[in-house]
Amino acid sequence: SESWTQMATSFGVKVEKFGADWRKGVDIAKLAERLTKDKQHEIKAVLVVHNETATGMFIPIQDVRRALDETKHPALLLSDTISSLGSLEYKMDAWGIDVTVGGSQKGLMLPTGMSMTGVSNKALEVAAKSKMPRHYFNWQMMNARKPQSFVGTAPVHMFFGLQESLRMIEEESLDAVIARHTRLGEATRAAVRAWGADGKGPHLYCQAEDRLSNSVTTVMMPEGHSSDGMRKAAVDRFNLSLGGGLGPLMGKVFRIGHMGDLNEPMLLGCLATTELAMKTAGVPFAPGGVDAAIASLAS
C-alpha cells in the first residue's frame, strides 16, 4: 500500500491513505462512512491490496465493492493481486472490480519481470477521457499496437513460461489449486500456533482470524529477539530462504511463503528447517510445530 501511494504521488495523483490496524486490516464499515461523506464524489478510485504480503493478511475485496454499491459511490475499484493471483479465490467480474494488477513471480510461478492488468469497460471509458500522465497503464496505446498489444518489446520468453504455468494450473484445476493453498496455509498456521503455545515463542502477526492469508504467513518474533539472525542461519547453514519484515516490521517478523508450485512434503521440510534455524539461533519456541502441521494436513 505504501509503494502504491509513492507511485501515485509521483504521477501527481492526490492520495488519501485510509488508515488501519496492520494486524487486523481495514474496517469496511468505516470505509463506507468515508464514502458516504464524499457527497461531491471527489474520490475517483479505491485501491485495495487484495493480499498484503508484509502482514500475511487478505482483504475481502467483495466487501469493499459492497460498500461502494451501498453508498452509491461511482469510484473505480482497483485491486493489487500480486501475491493472491493463482493462489486465492479471485473473481474480478463477479466482484465488480474495475482494474486488477497481477505479477508473474508468485502464484504464477515465474521469475519477476512481467505484470498484467485486467480492465473493466468502465475503467477503459474513464481512462479514455483522462488527461493524466500514464505509460504502462495507457491501454488505448496498447490496444492500438497489433498484433502484440505490448508497451515496448514483448518478453516472449516470459509468455512461454506463462503458458506452461497456466497449463499446470489447468491440469490441477484452479479450484484444486486454491484448495491446496488453503490446506498448506492452515498447516503453516497450525505450526506457528504450536511454536507459541507457551506464550514465549513466535506467533501469528495477523490477528484477524477471518483474514489470514493462504499464500503467505507472517510470524511475529518473541519479545527481545530479532528475526535477522534466525533468517541468516536458515539460509547460510540450511539453504532455506525465509522472508524478512518489510518497512517498520523489519527484524520483528519473518515470513513463510506457501504459494505456487508447493506441496505437503516441501512445506513440512520448510517448517522443520525453520524449527532447526530457530533452535540454532536461540529463539525460544514450544516443540510440536511440525507435528501440528502434520495433524492439520492429515485431517
Explained architecture:
The protein is of the alpha+beta class and 299 residues long. The chain has two domains: 2-168, Type I PLP-dependent aspartate aminotransferase-like (Major domain) (Aspartate Aminotransferase, domain 2, 3-Layer(aba) Sandwich); 174-298, Alpha-Beta Complex (Aspartate Aminotransferase, domain 1), CATH 3.90.1150. It contains ten helices and ten strands. Strand 2 and strand 3 form a beta hairpin.
Helix content: 40-55%
How are strands sequenced across the largest beta sheet?
Answer: 1-4-5-6
Biggest beta sheet attributes: 4 strands, mixed
**CATH level-1 class of the largest domain:** Alpha Beta
Shape call: globular
Radius of gyration in whole Å, from Cα? 21 Å
Instruction: Tell me the CATH topology of the largest domain.
Output: Aspartate Aminotransferase, domain 2
CATH superfamily of the largest domain: Type I PLP-dependent aspartate aminotransferase-like (Major domain)
What percent strand? 5-15%
Tally of individual domains: 2
Q: What's the end-to-end separation, in Å?
A: 36 Å
**Number of separate helices:** 10
Secondary-structure-based class equals alpha+beta
| Overall residue-averaged pLDDT value | 95
Q: Write the CATH architecture name of the largest domain.
A: 3-Layer(aba) Sandwich
Q: Which residues sit in consecutive blocks of at least 5 with pLDDT less than 50?
A: none
Count every beta strand, where a strand is a DSSP E run of 2 or more residues.
10
The H-and-E topology, N to C, reads as HHEEEHEEEHHHHEEHEEHH
